[in-house]
Known about the structure:
The protein has no helices and 5 strands. The protein is an all-beta fold. A hairpin with a 2-residue loop joins strand 2 (45-54) and strand 3 (57-67).
Amino acid sequence: MRCVEDISFTACEEIKCVEAGVHIDDEGHMLTIPVYLYDVCPCREVIVGVQVYVDGRLYAMKTQKVYTGGCRYCRKIHEKYVDDFYFLFTELCDEKISIKMLAHYLY
């Protein structure tokens, strides 16, 4: 793993885009986790997180903000597809892998 540069945010800077390239090293494995939300309120923003644990230790985490959509007078959205979350494993995975998923409404 190569660190390209230190990243810092200035006051009131919400988003930063950093361009970087990477060289291909060895072989790896990719874990794909499709994420769905069930029975969510319409017209709300939700932050969704997926944590991957290897042998009980946190290995990687990814978060994403999603807008539930729908209409204000709808009661609940039964099923909302968020996205596929991808994780890279750079070594052989003989260990026990588990995932934890989190979701919270934003105000």
